Amino acid sequence: MNDNRKAQIKLICSMLIYGTIGLFRRMLPFSSAMIAIMRGIIGSCFLIVYMKIRKKPIRLKNAANEVPLVLFIGALIGVNWIFLFEAYNYTTVAIATLCYYMAPVFVIIAAVFVLGERMTVKKIISILLSVIGMILISKTGMHPESDTLDIRGILFGLLAAALYAAVILLNKKIKKMGVYERTILQLLSAAFVLIPYQLVTDGIVIQGTPISWGLMIFIGIVHTGIAYLLYFGSLTALPTQTVALFSYIDPVTAVLLSAFLLREPLGLSGVLGTILILGAALINELAVGEHTD
Predict the structure, then answer these.
(1) Domain boundaries, given as residue ranges, for the chain
(2) 10 Å Cβ neighbour count for 124?
(3) Which residues, 6+ apart, have CB-to-CB distance to 111 below 8 Å?
């Protein structure tokens, strides 16, 4: 098996893992902040152990001036996780994931003002399709437990998308720090910045069944540590367009699990909204790929 095929398998596996996180969150009794804290701590510890086993030194000396920005980005990631997990609480996994997938649109708009990028016809089409798709999705924003419209899930998903867009843009400013070092610091920052919030709101909850804590550890190791290793391990061997196309395995997996496993309604308008949002993001990614490959 050649390196390209191995990289494709790694990327597919990481996207499949990401696509199931909503399902696992639905099974956890802990608060969103608590899950985010444990995810950051367990995931970063896993990556540190991995680097030690592979005898990869953690190098920060040449990128010391980037540490504050990296830690700030990590804090944004932590808050982003809270909004995403709360979105899963107030609407279906499919709708929460699709709202989160509005991040590319937010990146397009912000890049015009922050990075001075040019607004192209493809980008304008991408924005319009996403907005129409979001309007259609909002008509099916049912609470997973009550079958009633709950706009909070959609708002939380969009807030998570906006924060993730900020993370994407800010990460472009990190030039010297290695990918794994950056990821470890951001995961630790994401966890520790949320501890005061958790203490003030619900306190550090240590009770829970062995199954719930097993699921928590599973999310930290598999959905964070292993998924990040697979994802970053595939990037260097694959062109940008391939990465962009394969990234759609994540939301498609979430939508399918929501419909067939969780039996969460999507409806005709939801299906049309899904097609428009994913199609808009695809147009954007391919437009980017044309200039970066």
Answers:
(1) 3-197+212-287
(2) 11
(3) 117, 169
The answer to whether the CB of 107 falls within 8 A of the CB of 201 is no
Hey, what are 146's tokens?
Answer: 């009550």
Instruction: Give the side-chain half-sphere CA count within 13 A for 196.
Output: 3
Give DSSP secondary structure letters for 81-135.
HHHHHHHHHHS-HHHHHHHHTTHHHHHHHHHHHHT-----HHHHHHHHHHHHHHH
Summarize pLDDT for 235-276 with one digit per residue, the tens: 777 776 677 677 778 888 888 888 888 887 777 777 888 788
* Residue 149, helix vs strand vs coil: strand
Q: Which residues pair with 142 in a beta bridge?
A: 149
Pair of tokens at residue 94: 């499919």
Cα distances (Å, whole numbers) of residue 29 to 25, 90, 195, 261: 8, 14, 18, 19
pTM exceeds 0.90 = no
Q: Could you tell me the sign of the dihedral formed by the alpha carbons of 274, 276, 277, 279, in that order? A: positive
The predicted-structure confidence for 90-117, as pLDDT tens digits, reads as follows 888 888 888 888 887 788 788 788 777 7
Instruction: Quote helix, strand, coil % in the chain, to nearest 5.
Output: 75, 0, 20
Distance CA 192, CA 196 (A): 8
Q: Work out the burial of residue 213: count CB atoms within 10 Å of its CB; fewer than 13 is exposed, 13-18 middle, 19 or more buried.
A: middle
In which element (H, E) is residue 73 found?
Answer: helix 67-90
Going by the DSSP 8-state scheme, the letter that residue 147 receives in this structure is -
DSSP per residue, 165-234 = HHHHHHHTT--SS-HHHHHHHHHHHHHHTTHHHHHHHT-------HHHHHHHHHIIIIIIIIHHHHHHHH
From the list 6, 7, 27, the residue with the least C-alpha distance to 219 is: 27
CA dihedral 261, 158, 47, 43 (to 10 degrees): -60
CB 36 within 8 A of CB 81: yes
